[in-house]
Amino acid sequence: MESSGGEELGLGSRWWIASRRRLMPDDPFFSAGNIERELLAKQVALDLTEDERYQLQKMEYECLVEGCGVKLKSYKSRQQHLVDKHKFPTTFEFYKKAHPSKHQRQKHQRRQASHPKEAANDTDMDVDRKSSKQIYQKYRPKKASLKEGKEAEMEVEERMDDLVSAVSKLSTSDSSPSSISFGHRHARGFAFVPRSIHQNRKQTSQSEAKG
Amino acid sequence: MADEDVSPQSSYHRDAIKTSVHNTSAQRRRQLAVAVGKERREALIRTKRLCREAHFDDNEASLEGDMNIEEERAVLNAQASQIIEDLKSATTYQYELSMTKGKGAAQKKVEALRALRRLLSKSEFPPVKAALQAGAVPLLVQYLSFGSPDEQLLEAAWCLTNIAAGEPEETKSLVPALPLLVAHLGEKSSVPVAEQCAWALGNVAGEGDELRNILLAQGALLPLARLMMSNKGSTARTASWALSNLIKGPQPNAATELIRIKGVLDAIIQHLRNLDDELVTEVAWVVVYLSALSEAAVGLLVKSDVVHLLVGKLAASERLHLLIPVLRSLGNLVAADSYMTDKVLVVGHNTTDQILLGLIKCLKSEHRVLKKEAAWVLSNIAAGSVGHKELIFSSEATPLMIHLLSSAPFDIRKEVAYTLGNLCVAPAKNAEQPSVIVHHLVALVNRECISGFIHLVRSADIQSAKLGLQFLELVMRGMPNREGPKLVEREDGIDAMERFQFHENEEMRTMANGLVDKYFGEDYGLDE
């Protein structure tokens, strides 16, 4: 005797009757599998290789407060954590280095160059968040172009030009921040939170009710 | 970023890409690699810029980081609106005249469309709403008119694709564009254009029932099916994906209509043989919905090579996104038609051995989805002949399931319970009490399954509780030497059953009380 999920077994249900159970595609039983489909599709759209994806999943942002030890998945979520858990004000300014040496700047900048994947991490996380909102729905904003020969080549040239000009803009010292820190261990620069900041924080957290 | 770090790198990349594009024909993989590399760089550049400004050595205010995100959004929105205004004026006759060459006008249009497309392709903050507010859809419909150059059609369809990939309201805004998108699926349009339109329509179909019905009414099914039959991998894949969204129901009519289209079944079979896993995956999803919704499709599928091909993939592949639809298709077919266990998965046949291996692999998988759905499939096979039960019982599946019964999350335990219980009962004749396969039952009891089922009796899910009670009934009736009740008592089974003594659910009350009365009544313990 066949029955669908959710229905009682029919006659003689005092006893175990072995029967096939058929399920409709929108049965909640299948929702986990459906979600997997959506998530995977979104990741494909981002064109990350499996290695990069794996690395991104390992990316962590450590909480800046010493002793907390919580690890967050993105810069934004860490900021949220700092605001929520540690009552950092949203406009809080951290300990600022005024003018790093050129050597310092180069050191920071080079680190950025060697950890480009971290940047992609944010994108990936955002996409994951977006995709989790669109459960069992359509997906695949088209990202990749499958144009033939010449067109693709021209596009690539354009993109390279864009890339080079964008990158050269990034290197303009006027707009570059006083110091940049990239890489897994963000907390490295903040293993010790200077006293002045502790005090500052207390003050600001009192004055800002929301924190 | 220090120039010296970047320049040599970028020129290296430039050279590498030039070479790859120059070489030989536009092979799909190479194009895709170029496109992938391009998009990846775009993603990295964009987010790198964001990250960099937002981070400021973690010293700067995080609000400033937020402001940069807000600023970026505003900029993108403004850009989108501007392009759309440009595109609007580009459609006027004046504009055409003002261009000295006709070619120039067309080129400007394409460039503007391309710029819009790029904005809409951003994975963070694509300015979809701004574009819609500026009137993107009717405008793009104009640019989609037949006779336009392919480049233009492609870009316009791409823009629509990405608008459709947004929020539900954004997808719905495509309704005025649907007839034309459907029209471009046909043979009058070039394959790349048709493919891009299929993509857009796939997004629309995936949004919901209402839009699916509109598309079906507008005749999207047939041309998509035709595209699915294409030999070109990307076309077949995109069309399959769009079709899976279109036929997914809940109404079964689209699925039934699809399988009736000449050539569809053959195309499915052919594609399942393809080495491209992504194509196989999308086609498998079509089979998922065909097998779930259409009796006609089930009847055809179980008699075709599809089963054998799916089983092969199940046994051989390690890829989660392929295994899910393959497993589910097989599950649907087994559940829907006894032909599967009667004629296809005959004990002793190679396909049967293979499917068992595939299911065992899924039970061992770290992925919850695979474990759960594999257990479901097994439970349905275990509802077959005694031969099937013996086959499963003597395989590696049984110890795996016994372990899962005590250790896995609830949803998996439940499916496993169905399977294990099914192994212990022979097919019922008429409405009699089904007979117990004693040596299976004894084996399971000896490996401490009783406690797993008692755990189910205690669960909040009534269906699971009933399952547990039914198994206890088997144990108490079927175990030799009337050992059953003792064993059940030892595992606190009486306590679990008495939970239903005054339960609101009458059926559960009756069942539980009946068991307690029968097996733990006045006579209990007197035989000792």
TrEMBL record, chain A:
Domain of life: Eukaryota
Basic residues: bias regions: 97-114
InterPro entries, A to Z: ZNF511 (IPR039258)
Region (Disordered) residue spans: 97-157
Biased composition (Basic and acidic residues): 115-131
Protein name stated in the entry: Zinc finger protein
Organism: Musa troglodytarum
Lineage summary: Eukaryota, Viridiplantae, Streptophyta, Embryophyta, Tracheophyta
UniProtKB/TrEMBL annotation, chain B:
Keywords of this entry: Protein transport, Repeat, Transport
GO CC list: cytoplasm
Domain of life: Eukaryota
Region of interest: Disordered: 1-30
Keyword Protein transport part of the UniProt annotation: yes
GO MF annotation terms: nuclear import signal receptor activity
Pfam families linked to this entry: Arm (PF00514)
Gene Ontology BP term (one): protein import into nucleus
Reported function: Binds specifically and directly to substrates containing either a simple or bipartite NLS motif. Promotes docking of import substrates to the nuclear envelope.
Family according to the record: Belongs to the importin alpha family.
Self-association state and partner proteins as the record states: Forms a complex with importin subunit beta-1.
Descriptive protein name: Importin subunit alpha
